[in-house]
Structure formats: C-alpha cells, structure tokens
Task: inverse folding
C-alpha cells in the first residue's frame, strides 16, 4: 500500500493475497512485477517468511527520475511480504524501481505505471503546497509579523468574549437573586441599576484577567482562541474597555444603588484581578479565593435593595461559596493537561484526591445551608424540603466523582451544577416569606408623609 503518513512522507507497499497489487489509500492501484535473481521469491502458498527485516538498496529501472523536494529526501518505503517487513529509503520516485535484498540477493521490481505515477506526483506536489506558508494563510498569520487590525463589524462580539459573557451572566443572575430575596419593596429602577452595574464590573474583571493571562492562555486548548490571544483586539483596546466598563459599573452601583453596593463591587473587582488571577500560578488556595469572588454578587444584590447585609444575605453568599467547588473542580478535572501545561496550580493538578474530596464536601454543605435558610428568615420552612431532592442528587454526583474520578463523572457533576444553581434560586424565590408587616408599615409611612404635606 502506498500512503503518505501525515508529514513524515512515509510510503508503504504490501502484497495483497496472491496478486502483487499496490493499493494506495488515495485510491491508486499500481501493478508490480516480482522477480528474483534466484527465482526463489516465495508466494502466499509458501511457508515461513520470505525476507527478514533488513535495509535494502534501490536500483531505478528508468531514467528521468523525479527528484523529491528537500523535505522529502530519504523517504522511507516499507515492504510487507509474508508478514515480514523491509524498510528502504527513497531519494527519488520514478515509474519503475527495483528493490534488492542483500542477504538473499532477491529483487523486487515495482512498476507503478504512468497514470498512477502522475497521481502520486500530484499528491506530493499538493502536500508540498499545503505545507508551505505561501499556500496556507493561517500559517502565514502565525509565522510573520503583521499589523493588528480590529474588525469593527465584530466589535460587540469581541467585547462579549472579552467579558466572558456566560460567566458574567451567571454573576448577574446571582446578584439579581440577592435583590429579589431581600426583605424590602421591589424597586424596578434599583433592580435595573444593580443588574447593569454588576454586569459592567464583572466584564471589567474578566477583561483584566484575560489581559494578564495572554501568555498562559495561548498554551491551553480551552483558551487559545480568546480574542487577545488571537490578536482580534489589541492589549490597549482591552485595557481601555476594562477601565471604562469598570468605572461606569462602579458609578452606576454607587449612584443607582448605594455606596455599600459599590464598595462590594470594587472589593470583588480587586480580589479577582489582583489576588485570584496571579494566585492561580502559585497555590491551590486560589480556588478558595475564587469562591469568595463568586459569593459576593448575592451580597451586592441584597445590599442594593436594603442598604444592609442581613443574615439571609450571608446564607445566600455561603450557598454560592460552596457551589463554586463542585462546579469548578469538576470543570478543571478534564482540563488538567491544559492547566499543567500553562503552569496553573489547580487542585485537580496538584492534589487530585483533595480535589474530589472538596467537591463532595461542599455538595453536602449546600444541603445543610438550605436547612439553615428558614432559620435566618431567608425562606419558608418548606424550602429545605423542596430543595432536598435537588441537593441529594447533586451530592450523589459528587459522590460518584469522588469514587470514580474519571472524565464521565466529572462531566456529569459539572453539567448538573449549571442546572442546580438556577433551580435552587428559583425555589428560593418561590419560598420567599411574605412581608405583610413591612408592606403595612410602608403604607402607614406613606400616609403619614401625605398628611404632613397637606397640613
């Protein structure tokens, strides 16, 4: 069989049953004639091995030989005859060549024919073109210096990718949940402001994170196509976007909500970019710091609604803190080669057993925190009961991940974590205690204000 083995230019020949046929992978069928100086070349009916593994010499039977390009010099040709193989090196190709077996003095004349020879030659030329940067735009892009240009038509798409829009969406969702669960009257304007401000602050944090990690993202399959790695945006453009979105986000939180919410947003922005991001390359404690970052958005939503942080807010933050571990540990489990290559000290790389234990431990912790929610006045007593099946299945997946520690169990845990937290938030909202007394008090205050104005 003639075939080119990827970029190594290896060509193989084998005998097909009793007929001497060369069958290339590309559909070529070349006829051969097998002759022997001693007429003792064995056939399929013979017993034993015709030729042992040995280096052979090539004698070309025709003139006008085609020279191989420089990269194809010394092309290996392997002959498989009666389950034995003989390796020869081709410097050139022609329509006909003779293989000599030194030890047995046997020869094998290979005649590939003019048509198949032309096809073989075209295959070599095509492979040479494909491997040349001149015919490979992607290779040119990667190998030469070029001016960095931004496609303005895709600018919004680049901003979404720079902001890690799905992660930002999850952050905004938990902030909205904190606002919705807070024991105060719902204000649509305040709700909109905290949603917008949290989203802009999160976008800024993610953009700065990508700016710092370009050299390491380029080494990971998961992140090698990010906008800064690919050069779709310049570093200055990304930093400007981060500065503008972060500043606007904090101003929106301060003016649209209150200073406490803005302070929490600034704290989280600094914690993610200045502590968590560099910490990833030094210690596995980065996961705990990252979990704190994930626990702050519900506090921001709660503070925006009430102006304070009550025990219910801390229960929500604790649930989000615990949720980060099974979510991220399961995600990082299948990315261990990437993290190791880039030099990140993740639990899944440095201590895989600890990674599995921590994930299981915090799935159990979420169940316990749900039972504390009614005690803190966050939900009705029915919430722990309604959330129990959801939490038990989450714990079961954590247990499977702890026991098996394979890609399947980690993937199942990660995927369910994406479903778990929205459903848990939905159950919280459904089981939010009614605030009749608060509404009556607010009604009385409004009546008093109106009466004072009239007098």
Result:
């Amino acid at each position: 069989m003639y075939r080119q083995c990827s970029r190594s230019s290896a060509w193989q020949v084998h005998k097909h049953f009793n007929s001497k046929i060369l069958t290339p992978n590309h559909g070529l069928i070349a006829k051969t004639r097998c002759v022997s100086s001693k007429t003792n070349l064995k056939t399929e009916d013979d017993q034993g091995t015709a030729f042992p593994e040995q280096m052979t010499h090539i004698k070309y039977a025709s003139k006008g030989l085609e020279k191989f390009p420089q990269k194809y010099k010394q092309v290996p040709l392997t002959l498989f005859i009666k389950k034995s193989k003989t390796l020869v090196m081709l410097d050139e190709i022609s329509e006909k060549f003779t293989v000599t077996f030194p030890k047995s003095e046997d020869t094998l004349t290979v005649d590939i024919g003019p048509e198949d020879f032309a096809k073989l030659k075209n295959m070599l030329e095509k492979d040479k073109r494909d491997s040349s940067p001149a015919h490979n735009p992607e290779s040119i892009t990667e190998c030469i210096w070029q001016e960095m240009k931004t496609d303005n038509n895709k600018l919004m798409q680049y901003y979404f990718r720079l902001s890690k829009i799905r992660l930002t969406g999850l952050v905004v969702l938990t902030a909205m949940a904190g606002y919705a669960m807070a024991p105060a009257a719902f204000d649509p304007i305040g709700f909109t402001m905290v949603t917008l401000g949290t989203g802009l602050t999160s976008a800024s944090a993610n953009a700065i994170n990508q700016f710092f990690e370009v050299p390491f993202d380029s080494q990971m399959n998961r992140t090698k196509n990010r906008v800064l790695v690919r050069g779709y945006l310049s570093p200055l453009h990304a930093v400007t976007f981060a500065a503008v979105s972060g500043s606007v986000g904090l101003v929106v939180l301060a003016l649209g909500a209150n200073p406490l919410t803005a302070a929490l947003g600034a704290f989280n922005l600094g914690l993610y970019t200045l502590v968590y991001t560099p910490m990833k390359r030094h210690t596995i404690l980065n996961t705990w710091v990252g979990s704190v970052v994930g626990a702050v958005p519900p506090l921001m939503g709660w503070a925006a609604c009430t102006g304070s942080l009550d025990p219910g807010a801390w229960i929500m933050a604790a649930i989000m803190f615990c949720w980060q571990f099974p979510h991220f540990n399961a995600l990082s489990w299948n990315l261990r080669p990437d993290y190791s290559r880039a030099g990140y000290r993740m639990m899944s790389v440095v201590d895989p057993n600890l990674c599995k234990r921590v994930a299981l431990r915090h799935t159990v912790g979420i169940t316990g925190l749900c039972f504390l929610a009614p005690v803190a006045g966050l939900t009705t007593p029915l919430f722990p009961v309604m959330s129990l099946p959801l939490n038990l299945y989450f714990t079961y997946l954590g247990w499977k991940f702890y026991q098996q520690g394979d890609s399947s169990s980690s993937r199942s845990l990660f995927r369910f974590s994406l479903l778990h937290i929205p459903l848990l938030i939905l159950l919280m909202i459904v089981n939010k205690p009614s605030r009749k007394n608060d509404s009556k008090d607010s009604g009385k205050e409004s009546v008093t204000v109106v009466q004072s104005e009239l007098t």
User: Anything to note?
Assistant: Residues 1-85, 87-91, 439-455 have pLDDT under 50 and may be disordered. Strands lie at 11-14, 21-22, 30-33, 57-60, 66-67, 75-81, 84-90, 92-93, 96-101, 106-111. The first strand starts at residue 11 and ends at 14. The CA atoms of residues 83 and 158 lie 57 Å apart.
